[in-house]
Write a structure and sequence with these properties.
This protein is α/β, with parallel strands linked by helices and 314 residues long. Helix content is 41%, strand content 22%. It has two domains: 11-95, Alpha Horseshoe (Serine Threonine Protein Phosphatase 5, Tetratricopeptide repeat), CATH 1.25.40; 116-306, Rossmann fold, CATH 3.40.50.150. A hairpin with a 2-residue loop joins β8 and β9.
Length: 314
């Protein structure tokens, strides 16, 4: 994938963009947007600049202009590495999507790979691996012959799984994250892959985990079906979701895109998807996944068992 052009390539345009950021930080969002638009007249092919203009226009209370800027960013970068289509969806200018653009997820995690653990664990209080570890051990004490860690990131979940797994494999969309995980020496195998298109052909696992992964998946039916195909009968599936603000009735689909551009899911939707794919719920615990802008992000830590005899197409 081509690197994202974070500079316009024009020194004068970059200088104007820097001034625009100063105005934005001071709270003058409309003036910031006007100045950045002037920079984009000098560098009209700068997709990241158009995306940022959309954010400034939105903050200035100009949703029509924000939509125009994000539409331009999407035209210049059809892979949508900055997630312009999600911004358009949130302001009602694009159809609801079942999942975010894969390039957006990959770009996001590559960007944060080097600082990911310090930000997530130390600053945002992320303790989900500990929570899932306790739930897994309570559901099935002992060891697992093969554990698959989907969306393994830098290996935070892998650190909990390694002591109880004879073989541990990690899969992630981000090469940057995988480099961090590889340096820890936890995994027997690490593979770069997109969960949306993941095709697993290895031996059946007796544990599959997906810690803080489904925030960038959306609809869960397809991935749950794939995971059922990876597991041996009686195998465990341990994962988390963020929960919908406002409770079960806040979205009829069972999941929704939040202003954070993460997906949240209702408990009833999670239970329906698991049941439809041959799983029985062993534990489903409300938990605080992390902090976000000093507010707790509520979620569920779930452990389910694949019923013996369930036949799924992976």
């Amino acid at each position: 994938m081509k690197p994202l052009q974070t500079s316009s390539g024009d020194l004068t345009a970059d200088r104007r963009a820097d001034y625009a950021e100063m105005l934005y930080a001071s709270g003058d969002h409309a003036a910031a947007a006007e100045l950045l638009l002037g920079a984009l007249e000098l560098a009209p092919q700068w997709s990241a600049g158009w995306f940022r203009l959309g954010e400034m226009q939105e903050a200035a209370g100009a949703p029509d202009r924000a939509a125009q800027a994000w539409t331009t960013a999407l035209r210049l970068d059809p892979a949508d590495r900055l997630g312009a289509v999600l911004k358009l969806q949130l302001i009602g200018r694009a159809a609801a999507a079942q999942a975010p653009p894969s390039a957006f997820v990959e770009t996001l995690y590559n960007h944060y790979a080097g600082s990911f653990e310090g930000e997530l664990v130390d600053r945002l209080g992320y303790r989900l691996p500990e929570c899932l570890d306790r739930a897994i051990r309570a559901a099935r004490p002992g060891r697992f012959s093969l554990a698959l860690d989907l969306g393994c990131g830098t290996g935070l979940m892998g650190q909990k799984l390694r002591p109880i797994a004879d073989r541990l494999e990690g899969y992630d969309i981000s090469a940057g994250m995988l480099r961090q995980a590889r340096a820890k020496g936890l995994y027997d195998l690490l593979v770069k892959t997109d969960l949306q298109d993941f095709c697993y052909s290895g031996p059946k696992a007796d544990l599959v985990t997906a810690a803080d992964v489904f925030i960038y998946v959306g609809a869960l039916d397809r991935v749950a079906n794939k995971i059922a195909g990876m597991l041996a009968g009686g195998g465990l599936f341990a994962f988390s979701v963020e929960t919908l603000p406002g409770g079960e009735s806040s979205d009829r689909a069972g999941f929704a895109l939040l202003p954070s551009r993460r997906y949240a899911h209702s408990q009833s939707y999670v239970e329906r998807v698991l049941d439809a794919n041959g799983f029985s719920v062993l534990s489903l615990q409300p938990t605080i996944i992390r902090q976000d802008r000093r507010e707790p992000v509520e979620g569920l830590a779930v452990v389910a068992r694949l019923l013996s005899g369930s036949v799924k197409s992976g």
